[in-house]
């Protein structure tokens, strides 16, 4: 006679109780060590599923925004180091002094400010690693996400090394300018990444910025976007030359400065700003009612930011470059680069004939989600 199954409460196995015949030994229950191992596997799997995403979702978007904010914050803290004369608050690199990795009480406020700016590197590193891991499983479906997060991560040690060279060269203005331009490039890439993740994670954004729009205006939109990016880059670079010529050297001691005439280099800096304002205004006029709404609005935001930056620039020029105005101008430069990146990315996205890789429906399991290896 077939034995009747007997399910033991609280157990994950079934034993059989025969009605007659010789007794059959029941399978042994899993021991505590096996249960513990299984629980550990489940914990690692859950943790991996959280950090290693299989689709562009809220966490991926959060890490993208965090990357943009952190890189923008670096411009602000670096500017405060220069404006407070703390550029050589830590006189060497990578240590703060020859004997200490950190600032000391004897170094005062300048040492604390410069050391605090160096600590931001570790915040950037944590954000970059989180953003990279978040899209590691997406590297085949979205290689652009993988590449952008990898570049943003590699930019951090590059920035640290250039910062060290800046200290060892006594705040040479050419090196300081390179340091700032790298930050601007990082912000541009981070903003580009944010916009792409928004389009992949938010259906409403994907619908507004769907490819294949404005076929007749494709060449004009893309040309204006490229020209906008070039003019913005020239504007930012000439701004570093103005800064290297001006009074805020970054240290209270004697520091090498550019030998440009202050008035001439400031006027040269203003020329691409005028051209940028004219380009944006013309694009808004020509594109009104013809260009995709998302692109037109992005251009309008760029125009508003540039006008605001120009007003701050004129104010600081005619009022002896006060520290508060210079700080606002620095923050404005980061905002300008980010908004230009948004506009350029949108312009190329909506005029593209190629659809972006489709995301799986929400709630559906993908092969990557069913694996226990978070890196696969």
Topology:
Layout: E1 4-7, E2 14-17, H1 32-51, H2 58-83, H3 108-134, H4 143-168, H5 173-201, H6 203-208, H7 218-245, H8 262-287, H9 293-318, H10 323-350
Antiparallel strand pairs: 1-2
Helix pairs in contact: 2-3, 2-5, 2-10, 3-4, 4-5, 5-7, 5-10, 7-8, 7-10, 8-9, 9-10
3D structure, described in words:
By secondary structure, the chain is mainly α. It has one domain (51-350). It has ten helices and two strands; from the N terminus they run ββαααααααααα. The protein has helices at residues 32-51, 58-83, 108-134, 143-168, 173-201, 203-208, 218-245, 262-287, 293-318, 323-350; strands at 4-7, 14-17. A two-stranded antiparallel sheet has the order 1-2. α2 (58-83) runs antiparallel to α10, α3 packs antiparallel against α4 and α5 packs antiparallel against α7 (218-245). The protein is flat, with a radius of gyration of 28 Å. The chain starts with a strand and ends in a 26-residue tail after the last helix.
């Amino acid at each position: 006679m077939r034995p009747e199954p007997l399910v033991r409460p609280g157990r994950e196995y079934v034993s059989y109780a025969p009605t007659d015949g010789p007794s059959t030994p029941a399978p042994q229950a899993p021991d505590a060590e096996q249960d513990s191992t299984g629980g550990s596997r489940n914990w690692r799997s859950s943790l991996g599923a959280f950090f290693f995403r299989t689709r562009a979702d809220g966490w991926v978007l959060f890490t993208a925004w965090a990357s943009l904010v952190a890189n923008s914050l670096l411009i602000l803290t670096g500017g405060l180091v220069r404006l407070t004369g703390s550029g050589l608050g830590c006189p060497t690199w990578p240590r703060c002094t020859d004997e200490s990795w950190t600032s000391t009480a004897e170094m005062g406020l300048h040492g604390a400010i410069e050391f605090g700016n160096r600590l931001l590197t570790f915040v950037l590193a944590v954000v970059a690693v989180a953003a990279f891991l978040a899209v590691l499983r997406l590297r085949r479906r979205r290689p652009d996400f993988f590449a952008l997060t990898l570049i943003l991560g590699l930019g951090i040690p590059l920035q640290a090394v250039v910062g060290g060279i800046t200290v060892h060269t006594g705040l040479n203005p050419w090196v300081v300018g390179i340091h700032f331009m790298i930050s601007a490039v990082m912000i541009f890439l981070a903003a580009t990444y944010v916009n792409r993740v928004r389009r992949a994670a938010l259906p409403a954004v994907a619908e507004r910025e769907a490819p294949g729009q404005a076929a007749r205006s494709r060449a004009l939109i893309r040309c204006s976007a490229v020209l906008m990016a070039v003019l913005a880059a020239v504007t930012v670079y000439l701004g570093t030359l103005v800064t290297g010529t001006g009074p805020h050297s970054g240290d209270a001691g004697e520091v090498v400065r550019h030998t440009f005439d202050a008035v001439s280099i400031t006027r040269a800096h203003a020329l691409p700003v005028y051209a940028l304002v004219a380009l944006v205004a013309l694009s808004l006029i020509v594109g009104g009612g013809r260009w995709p709404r998302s692109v037109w609005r992005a251009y309008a935001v760029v125009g508003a930011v540039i006008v605001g930056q120009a007003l701050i620039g004129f104010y600081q020029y005619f009022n002896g470059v006060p520290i508060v105005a210079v700080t606002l101008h620095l923050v404005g430069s980061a905002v300008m680069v980010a908004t230009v990146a948004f506009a350029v990315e949108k312009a190329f996205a909506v005029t593209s004939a190629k659809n972006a890789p489709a995301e799986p429906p929400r709630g559906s399991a993908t092969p990557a989600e069913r694996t226990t290896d978070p890196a696969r």
